[in-house]
Automatic annotation (TrEMBL), chain A:
Catalytically driven reaction(s): UMP + diphosphate = 5-phospho-alpha-D-ribose 1-diphosphate + uracil
Function: Regulates the transcription of the pyrimidine nucleotide (pyr) operon in response to exogenous pyrimidines.
Organism: Deinococcus grandis
Protein name listed in UniProt: Bifunctional protein PyrR
EC number(s) reported in the record: 2.4.2.9
Motif (PRPP-binding): 99-111
Transmembrane segments: none
Gene designation per UniProt: pyrR
Amino acid sequence: MTPKATILTADEVRRALTRIAHEIIERNKGAENLALIGVHTRGIPLARRLAEKLSTLEGVDVPTGMLDITLYRDDLSEVAQQPIIRETQVPFDLRDRRVILVDDVLYTGRTVRAALDALIDLGRPAGIQLAVLVDRGHRELPIRADYVGKNLPTAATEVVKVKLQETDDVDSVELWDMEALR
Amino acid sequence: MGARPPHLLDFQDWTPERLGAILDNADTMLQVLDRPVKKVPALQGLTVCNAFFENSTRTRTSFELAARRMSADVLTFAAGASSVSKGESLRDTLEVLTSYKVDAYIVRHHAAGAAHLVARYSGKPVINAGDGRRAHPTQALLDAYTIRQEYGSLEGKKIAILGDVRHSRVARSNAELLPKLGAQVVLCGPATLLPPGLARMPGVTLTTDPREAVRGAHAVMALRLQRERMSGGFLGSLQEYADTYQVNDTLLKEAESGAIVLHPGPMNRDLEISSDAADGPQSRILKQVENGQAIRMSVLYHLLVGRN
């Protein structure tokens, strides 16, 4: 089985993250008082990579955390299988920090909505921004990303697969036909 | 992990993997309880009925808070203030409650098997919050969780449970659960309060010698002496019982160094447990109460989410 198209190669993923890091610095006038929080699963390594880039570019250690949104999903009463609860770890005070929420793919917006609820229950950040590697459209809620690695118009029958070294031993973004994956 | 049992009545149909998942998720629930907003929307829109046909303070409030922390609506039903006191049967009471569109039942009853009966007729998940002398599974889960918190695992741990084993649903549920998770259980008490049939349970041994029971134990649990059930001549005298079976600092010297002390509550201080042991550095009794809420949140999540 092969993907319909490779959207980003490893080099392109790296460049996209570098560009996002520059945009974060520009928009926030530096990297002071920022925090990066990755949404399980692939948002976490992406947040850590962005933190490394911010450290290299600005000499500032930006704290990172991980967020699981399972208990905040709006479809828990409808799901057929019980979702696995994973770890939430935000080992720093959110007050007065601008938090950048990081995820791999922005699709309907429901994951981001759940993540916003989960985050606000942890404390009261000064602001929340959203960074995603891929925005594939099809929003069901009025949510948009502040930083996007790649805008990718897709059909609802397509699947965007983000692979990262930390979780999949390779960096790439691929577009697949849902039928091919069945 | 095996199929998920529809109810938590006892541990018969529960695999160690499923029980492990409940304990794992309780870690997350404890984190929720430690946050500024101690609530998650996981059970929003669902109604949980707290059906208590027998008096209880800590179990009832713990379940009620657990359900509320998960954003469920809670209907609390206390038999003393209901038509049960006018002679209404359990089944008729249940039909009334069902018409209120309840999504799950938490049942405490003085009769063994009452929670099974509710499970048979309600068509909704049922959690046994204590039925007669038979079972109190969430108490056993919170005990297991408290021990696991201390040692990281129950594998190979020796747990001594001392006291009125005969009348204790907590002892029975622990004897069923802890060996499933890899621990060995020693039940100890006067011969009159130690039903020999319990020795047939896998991973369980019985003894009337408290020093033997506690020797090398990683956790020592004192059971409440149910004085209201002592009219059958089970004991010579309370003083004699306390002199022999009380969990105190002298007895604890036989246990592993740093062994933890547990009690399901409410305690008869200086009868089955000394104040020194109950309040000392080895005591995890208040920790058990805190863990109880997290375990019950986890059980509600496990039984109610992902059914449709």
